[in-house]
Amino acid sequence: MISELCSLNRRQLVLQILGLGLVITSALVIWRSLVYLTNSESPMVVVLSGSMEPAFFRGDILFLNHSKRSISVGEVIVFNIEGRKIPIVHRVISSYSGKTLNNTNYLTKGDNNFGDDTVLYAAGQPTLSTDNIVGGVAAFIPCIGRITIIMNDFPILKYSVIGILCFLVVLSRD
Amino acid sequence: MHTFWHRVNAVVTLAIIALMVLAAAASVTDEFHVCEPKHDVSIAAVERLVSVDGADEAYFAIALDLDLRSCWTWNTKQLFVSLAASYVTPSNVAHDAFVYDRIVTSKTDANLTIPRARSKYKLREPEGLLGAEIEWILRWHQVRSIHWSPYDPVRVVNAIP
């Protein structure tokens, strides 16, 4: 491997590094376009808990869409809570709407949970406001997200996989 | 040029793309499915109406007779059936809240007859419930096995017309 790397001439090396840069930037471009198209700050989430079983299981990947104006009771939404890093996927069980749309508040609950989510919300926040909502579920891929869960549990695995991938990209010749 | 791993990569990529296209195409048939639900819902009793910390809290007993079997398609993972109370408070706030829900995981279970279902969630209203004109709303949400649509509609009917 090392001798292979040394045998590359300078021009080839530059080409390989540029190729790697192209892969990374196109991934970023795709991500930002998804954010723009779906109007959702994070258009892809991995389900991390079993609170929505049997609809969604741990490790399912959800694609979100937030371009719809209003959210109705009974829909499954993903929301962020202040002070919590991880977005939550739950169902809206109640809504209070005032005269304007921005006045609408929601209460959510996981299908598999006993009680509603008031205990999960930030202190002094009895219901969700429109700003908390990241999006509704638009598409779903089962199980694949398990990989990210395992990688987050074992960071060494994550970095070694990234390292090996970078190494392969730099070395691979067309 | 064409090493073993190149070939494996090409075959696996093609297989995944073909499967994704097939699954998406098959899920389109769901859109043409005609759903003719039968529902007969009535409020059997108001079991409790009490004032807690200045807010009215109500518990109901509901008589449910639902047949949602025609709404069950091959692509249905579960139906989430719910009954909600909807009304407008004196200060003009529209409140829409679940009173009862149930997860249906098979077609035969989509035929529900519960003569006296206790409300699963209490209906809590700080502005008081006496005199409120409550509209009862029946909803069912189809959770799909192959889910691929920008919007995920929840079907709504008036439970007690």
TrEMBL record, chain A:
Q: Is the Lyase keyword given for this protein?
A: no
The record's listing under Pfam families reads: Peptidase_S24
Q: Where in the cell is it found?
A: Endoplasmic reticulum membrane
Residue ranges spanning the membrane: these are: 12-31, 156-172
| Alphabetic keyword roster | Endoplasmic reticulum, Hydrolase, Membrane, Protease, Signal-anchor, Transmembrane, Transmembrane helix
Q: What region holds the Peptidase S24/S26A/S26B/S26C domain?
A: 33-101
Molecular function (GO) terms for this protein are:
serine-type endopeptidase activity; signal peptidase activity
One term under GO cellular component: signal peptidase complex
* Function noted in UniProt: Catalytic component of the signal peptidase complex (SPC) which catalyzes the cleavage of N-terminal signal sequences from nascent proteins as they are translocated into the lumen of the endoplasmic reticulum. Specifically cleaves N-terminal signal peptides that contain a hydrophobic alpha-helix (h-region) shorter than 18-20 amino acids.
| Protein's UniProt name | Signal peptidase complex catalytic subunit SEC11
The organism named in the record is Micromonas pusilla (strain CCMP1545)
From TrEMBL, chain B:
Gene Ontology biological process terms from the UniProt entry: protein targeting to ER; signal peptide processing
InterPro entries, A to Z = SPC3
Ordered alphabetically, the record's keywords are: Endoplasmic reticulum, Membrane, Signal, Signal-anchor, Transmembrane, Transmembrane helix
Its GO CC terms? signal peptidase complex
Q: Give membrane topology per the record.
A: Single-pass type II membrane protein
| Subcellular location field | Endoplasmic reticulum membrane
Identification of the protein by name: Signal peptidase complex subunit 3
